[in-house]
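Box S1 | Example of a co-folding query
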Amino acid sequence: MAVKKELLKELQTRREKVLAGGGQDKLDARRKKGLMTARDRLDNLFQPGTFMEFGMHAQHSCHNFGMEKKELPADGVVAGTGYVGDRPVAAYSEDFTVAGGSLGSMHAQKICDIMDFAQQSGMPVVCFNDSGGARIQEGVESLSGYGRVFFRNVYLSGVVPQIAVIAGPCAGGAAYSPALTDFQVMVKDQANMFITGPEVIFAATGQKCTMAEVGSAAAHATISGNIHFVAENDAHAIAIVQKLLSFIPSNNIMDPPHDLSQPLVLSEDPGMDDLVPEDGKNPIDIKAVIGRLVDNADFFEVQMDFAKNIVVGFGRIQGVVVGIIGNQPKFKAGALDIDASDKAARFIRFCNIFNIPLVTLVDTGGFLPGVAQERGGIIRHGAKMLFAYGAATVPKITVILRKAYGGAYLAMCSKDLGADLVFAWPTAEIAVMGAEGAVKILYKREIDKDPSSESSLIADYRAKFASPYQAAGKGIITDVIRPAQTRAMVAMALRNTLSKRETRPPKKHGNIPL
Ligand code: HXC
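Box S1 (continued) | Returned holo structure for hexanoyl-coenzyme A
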């Protein structure tokens, strides 16, 4: 007994047809241009031989505009599961060679099916967006398909990580599916993303603009803040996704991939002392501090080109995966503004969902003053940070390096906002406002009478009211430590808080000021 040869032949013929996508010539043309095909992307994402395809033989049932005569292999989207490292991951990849990767009803159904599978099995979802958008011939069924995908994006949010790679065109409402995921990687030059492109903008408003200005990876990475990573090409985008996955758990009930196999090392790092400039006016480079704090200087920065006055990203500290949030005094003196608040709050919330401890490094003079900030809603945006930290129940470790003034002190995860442990360097200044401003208000008459007294009054204020010992004396600092002790103390703090459990009153969700 054996399977009939004709049946095997049919299976092989059908598979080959689907694997050829929109035709070998189209696949070859893409590769010649340096672009991966939809299947190349999945083959490169997954460990060889681990891809299990879902819905390879799916067919559309559209009868409009001569579509009944067209076979669309895999209906323009390749979906399935595979292994990234040793963990299963779900993915789908739109095939531009098949009807421009456009989304019709079956295309949408395949995406929904793989997303449902990922949610039920607790695995991350990676999607490669490369599509002309709603399949015009399928009319409202395409729109409805997008709606079903968006619903899944929301349903899965907070349950399994979702990562979108914008690898080609991503126009109109279609851009909202990647926007609903946790991280967006955009491939330079070959991808663009917009709600209304230059032509529609001109027709509707008379404003002239270029695609580079409104839809490019560079514009989204630096100005709109819509994306998290820019990739040079497909291979780089896939490497970014793999690296990101190496820091995050597969779902919200798992721990991130900590490596606790090594014993704690509590030796000091004198190099950290050297990072503090003697002159208080010279800024610390927070990235240099982070580089010494994380294992092997391996810091995976998120949104590195947006709101550079705050730095966020992933690393491991003696094996424990952490999300790091640090003011960057080299940009805007590390002040918190609208974009910095949005960037940090979103990152904090991601970490909290996926059980990733937060390490906060504070060196900020406060919220950025200015008409544009006030009119732009800094109160609402800044409140997102307070909300995100206040709501986070993961371990929260804060280190105050230098300035921690006013509302920004609170917004950078003070003890009162629920930090489990707060360390301060001897260089820390913790106060309602900077010494210069405070002295001008407190000693106005004295300074008017004798302007030369101002500098000694400032020094006196600093010593009496902004000293870390003053804050430690009030119980809002756990300990004052040498910079050289930071890595050891944070590592120990993390191990001590890893089994933290915090239960809050049941509710649907809080109302973060959006
Ligand atoms: C059906 C489509 C398509 C679409 C492209 N194709 N987009 N088929 N529906 N939306 C087909 C083309 O007809 C062509 O088929 C093949 O895909 C390749 O397209 P080209 O135009 O030859 O490729 P290129 O020159 O690279 O241009 C790519 C493109 C362009 C910029 C994406 O195709 C384009 O502008 N497409 C329309 C985009 C659009 O307006 N989409 C609807 C947006 S509204 P053949 O058979 O010739 O190879 C929307 C609403 C979603 O998406 C709302 C959700 C809430």
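The first strand starts at residue 52 and ends at 54. The chain has 21 helices and 17 strands.
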